[in-house]
Amino acid sequence: MSQALKSSSEVKLEWDVSRPELFEENRVLPIMADMRRRQPVYYCPESAYGPYWSVTGYKEIVEVDTSHTIFSSEQSLGGIVIDDNIQNDAENNFHIPNFIAMDAPKHTDYRKSVQDIAAPPSIAALSDLIRERTATLLDSLPVGEDFDWVENVSIPLTTMMLATLFDFPFEDRHKLTRWSDVTTAEPGSGIIESQQQRIGELMECLEYFTKLWNERVNAPPAFNLISMLAHSPATRDMSPEAYLGNVLLLIVGGNDTTRNSMSGSINAMNLFPEQMNKLRSNPNLIDQMVAEIIRWQTPLAHMRRTAITDTILGGQAIKKGDKVVMWYAAGNRDETVFENPDVVDIERHNARRHVSFGFGIHRCMGMRLAELQLRILWEEILQRWHLIELRSEPKRLKSNFVNGYTEMMVRIRPTAS
């Protein structure tokens, strides 16, 4: 018989899984597993972000994600992250709306303006460029010496791809990485120290991208994200704040999923060496491995919605205006969907059922491009080396949103030893 549900009077501090240090210290998943077994829709009355509902069950996450007429993404109601103030700070008069924080039909119109960049023909056209860059970068790595995989592989590969999608000046592409990190970081995280610092750096981002907009709005339409925004009827009259918000959305969307999946794949193959052996024996498993890594890593730990009507979810009464947080990291470890979910299994038959890319109208636009980059990376790795060995415990990001790594020291082993 299952254990009794916890009442509100029995709330444990540990059940506030919004605390960023739980992710940094890699302690959050067992807590989420306990919540999922006992009460997959759970009300946390107090946190640094105010009261909120934690949704940790796979079925309930899918229900929220696909019920956009009940659970809103609108920026004016709080947006899509648990921290209301990240991109909407009334005290500092800082508002940067973006299309993922919109409901239909406005969301649909904005998304259409840029979605062709991630359509199958576009992705196919990028394949050779991705492979060329990946091969060149891997061939530059020191074999038999310790180096940081995050700094030397995951960040450069994703940043080069971002620069290509924006047609961003290649010599300044490091700015894209910094702006991505600043967008999602909390004050005191080690990335920024204050909200004022965030605002200052993002205003520099707006200034830079405004120059690019002005160049491209007066030029013929071209196949890059800035030109698409400048020439689309849905977005060409955006306010500067909306332009910044959508640029940052595209930067973060193109950066975090891919970067942290690349790093997570190295961690996974070290934690589960039998899977690495299996992959070496049968490289045709790479596509399946990519889906499994994205499930196991879950690069974005959560998405948030706001209830716009009273409703029932998982047997719990959700009130209009309540903050509802879908913990994708928990849904991807739901043992009722994924057998032995904490284990990496590159032959897992249903790995593609993961929730990492979301569902419904907000499903990740660039998911196929992220998968392609990870697949090509591992195709090129298998052609070169026997093993990429972890040299120490990876350092993780202090964030409840971006589930990622700040450092991963590795050493390449060219042959079996």
Please tell me about this protein's structure.
It is a single chain. By secondary structure, this protein is α+β, with helices and mostly antiparallel strands. The chain has a domain at about 10-140 and about 255-415: Cytochrome p450. Helices cover about 45% and strands about 10% of the residues. The protein contains 14 helices and 14 strands. It has helices at about 20-25, 30-40, 60-65, 105-115, 120-140, 150-165, 175-185, 195-215, 225-230, 240-270, 275-280, 285-295, 330, 365-385; strands spanning about 40-45, 50-55, 70, 90, 95, 145-150, 300-305, 310-315, 315-320, 325, 385-390, 395, 405, 410-415. The strands form five sheets. It has a five-stranded mixed beta sheet. Strands 6-14-11 form a three-stranded antiparallel beta sheet. The longest helix has about 30 residues, at about 240-270. It is globular, with a radius of gyration of 21 Å. The protein starts with 19 loop residues before the first helix and ends with a strand.
